[in-house]
Amino acid sequence: MALKLSAAPNTIARPxxxxxxTLGNAVTSGVSRYDVFLDEETGDILLRPYKExxxxxxxxxxxPKAHKLVIKGLSEAKEGKVRxxxxxxxxxxxxxxxxx
Length: 100
Known about the structure:
Layout: H1 25-28, E1 33-38, E2 45-50, H2 58-62, H3 64-78
Antiparallel strand pairs: 1-2
């Protein structure tokens, strides 16, 4: 695994009397957990951050077709490719193109 590190440390952290090191908000904002890797030869520590999603949103990542449609829609919206539709019409969904 290749790491890109800055030439100098971003900050210096010292363990407290219980051996804990505080990372601060800049590193922990939005992170729900870390996997911790220790290089036993050098003593280097790698923290791999994770952001977990609510269970009610997991279906999107478990459904490749729906996920592809959302990614496509976000990309099109960013490009300004938007249009107004009437959600009260029963056939508006027929106009949606299949991403495959």
